[in-house]
Every structure is written in structure tokens, then in C-alpha cells.
Design a protein that fits this description.
The protein is rod-shaped and about 95 Å long. A three-stranded antiparallel sheet has the order 3-4-5, with no helix packed on it. It has a two-stranded antiparallel ribbon with strand order 1-2. The longest helix is centred in the first third of the chain and has 42 residues. Strand 4 and strand 5 form a beta hairpin. It contains nine helices and five strands; from the N terminus they run ααααββαααβββαα. The protein has a domain of 93 residues. Helices cover 61% and strands 9% of the residues. By secondary structure, the chain is mainly alpha-helical.
Length: 220
């Protein structure tokens, strides 16, 4: 995955050496990962904004009215969460979803919001409310989206797998110096780039940087 040699940067950038390669190869993936996390953060904020607007809309939707006998069994926060979750399955906000997502019974093809709340009440009676609510909706979401996956994290893991070996090799090679004792005094140059003196200030300045990259890539 090291495309730098084919770019001919040594002809375009003054004082281009293996230090430059090290910085490009190690910082590039980190910048890309930061960009992905930025997109994820923006997506999260957008979803949160939509959720707030959705709450306001659902409060005034007659289809999302809480049954009278359940009004005092759920807090306002729980009702808000229940409405958001039900709205995930109710794409057109008509107050009904596919019953088969939550139950194998096909006597009633659609499940109303009130029926959904009764299902949650039953799950709370079987297990603690938080666990029962999560299991009920996780199973329904798996049925509604059998092929859904978190593409951002999947792509990030795939990308890290692809660049791991090449990046780690670049970092390790920074510590491989060739010693020449035939001259007085003896000299030492980087094996991958004989233009870089291992005793020079430029090389020594980036040793600490290379050590940090060791912990980030091959070790981390």
C-alpha cells in the first residue's frame, strides 16, 4: 500500500528523505481515521437533532397516544424512548408496524403503538424493564434489517488491516542503520536511505516520533 515511491515526491519536495516517508505513511492513516470519526460525530449530531424534532412531532400524533392504564407505569423519559424506538419501525408515522417483527402471531398483521407498549410491559414483567426492552427491540431490529451493519467501523477495521503490515514495516525500518567502520571515524546511515545519517540531528529528532508510532501501529 506504499504508493509514495510511484509519486516521485523525491523530485518535487526539497530534502525529501526517509523521515518524510515515515511521516507520510504514519500520519496519513491517522488523518483518515480522524476524518471518519468526524463524519460519525456529525452523523450522530444529525440523528440527535432529528430525534428531538421527531419527539415534538410524535407528542401531537394521535397514533402515539399512551393507553390510559399504562400512563403511570412509564416515566416521561421512558415514553420518549419508546416512541423513538417505535418510530424507527413505523416509517410513515401511521402508528402501526409489522407485528411479525415482535411476535410470530399473525392474527393481527399490524401492531399499534398501544399494543407495542403492552408488549414492553410484558417484557418488563418477565425480566427487568431495561433488559426486556432492549432484547425486544434488538430482535425486531435484526429482523427488520438483517443485513445492516455499522459500515463506518467495519471500513475502519478493514482499512487498518490493509495498512498495518506496510506501516509497521516503515516504522521498524527507521531503526535499521548500516554501520561503516572502514572509515575514520565510523559512520552509520539508514539502510533504506543512505542519504540519512543516523547520527545527524534530523534523524535523532524523529526517533521519539518513531517510538510513538511503534505503540500506535504494530503494538497498538
Amino acid at each position: 500500500m506504499n504508493v509514495l515511491p510511484s509519486l516521485g515526491l523525491a523530485c518535487r519536495i526539497k530534502d525529501f528523505d526517509y523521515v518524510t516517508t515515515l511521516v507520510f505513511i504514519t500520519l496519513g492513516p491517522l488523518v483518515f481515521a480522524a476524518f471518519l470519526f468526524l463524519l460519525y460525530g456529525l452523523e450522530f449530531l444529525l440523528k440527535k437533532h432529528k430525534a428531538i424534532k421527531l419527539d415534538d412531532r410524535l407528542k401531537n400524533n394521535v397514533h402515539y397516544a399512551v393507553p390510559k392504564d399504562l400512563v403511570h407505569q412509564f416515566s416521561k423519559t421512558e415514553v420518549t424512548t419508546i416512541r423513538r424506538t417505535f418510530a424507527f419501525f413505523d416509517k410513515f408515522s401511521r402508528g402501526r408496524v409489522d407485528r411479525t417483527l415482535f411476535s410470530k402471531s399473525e392474527a393481527t398483521p399490524d401492531l399499534s403503538f398501544g399494543d407495542y407498549m403492552y408488549l414492553i410491559q410484558q417484557s418488563c414483567q418477565v425480566d427487568n424493564c431495561e433488559t426486556g426492552f432492549a432484547e425486544l427491540n434488538d430482535a425486531a431490529e435484526a429482523k427488520a434489517n438483517p443485513h445492516q451493519e455499522d459500515s463506518m467501523f467495519f471500513f475502519l477495521l478493514l482499512f487498518s488491516f490493509v495498512i498495518l503490515i506496510g506501516t509497521s514495516s516503515t516504522v521498524f525500518e527507521y531503526f535499521q542503520c548500516t554501520h561503516f567502520e572502514e572509515v575514520e571515524p565510523a559512520v552509520s546511515y539508514l539502510a533504506r536511505d543512505y542519504s540519512l545519517d543516523c547520527s545527524s540531528p534530523r534523524y535523532k529528532e524523529y526517533v521519539a516520533y518513531a517510538v510513538v508510532m511503534l505503540f500506535i501501529y504494530p503494538i497498538g
